[in-house]
Request: fold
Amino acid sequence: MALKEESYKDKKVITIGTVSEITGLSERQIRYYEERKLIFPERTQKGTRKYSFNDIEQLMEIVEKMEEGVQTYEIRKEMLRKEKQLNEKSVREQMIRGQLNAQFGIQKPR
Amino acid sequence: MALKEESYKDKKVITIGTVSEITGLSERQIRYYEERKLIFPERTQKGTRKYSFNDIEQLMEIVEKMEEGVQTYEIRKEMLRKEKQLNEKSVREQMIRGQLNAQFGIQKPR
DNA sequence: CATCTAATGTAAGAAAATATAACAAGAGTG
DNA sequence: CACTCTTGTTATATTTTCTTACATTAGATG
Reply:
């Protein structure tokens, strides 16, 4: 099997100029949104930013919100809220799985 | 709907340095394989090469063949053979579809 | 063995892309 | 008005990429 399709979306391989072309945002804007903690490119050793297709999708969403007049600060808050939700969900799921294992899981032989 | 997952794989967005990192090939080698018509990056207006994940997979396959001692010329021939096969397949399919349309397709009212 | 070819490394110099920092400016708000 | 948010612009430095040319190595061939 080659690389999972999935992994392409998350792989940070795109430089800022290309991101700018695709999204229509200026490089200035892209760097600013990073400063406001809305996106998190990786860096090469020498400091060049690398983005993923996921980052680009994220930027598209940011554009929409900005056009609606939402400020970066609000967008960030919203992001944190969603993240927290996801965390809680996964914790809940883990707990449930824990319960199930406790009752029906592999038992120590005694 | 966002961009189709599929499209990520074909989008030419990666610069040669990154391709080099991922594949382990030198930039020299990557450009040489292009010269031998094994890969076909796009170019920006100013001439910078852009590769897709597909190109990277292609390069991985090339690496394997080269390690087996296959020469670029042979690899190219093999590529052309496969391409031709695909073409013929699609032509056959189109002809079949054409036949079907002729017999059962939309008819002009008379 | 003497050549040839294929594949790759390396170096030089130019051009393109990116990074950071600082200042400017418009829009909206208290 | 004074302030903040967002973006543009400019300058300068660094990094990346491009092309071309020459060198080298290994294998194939006469």
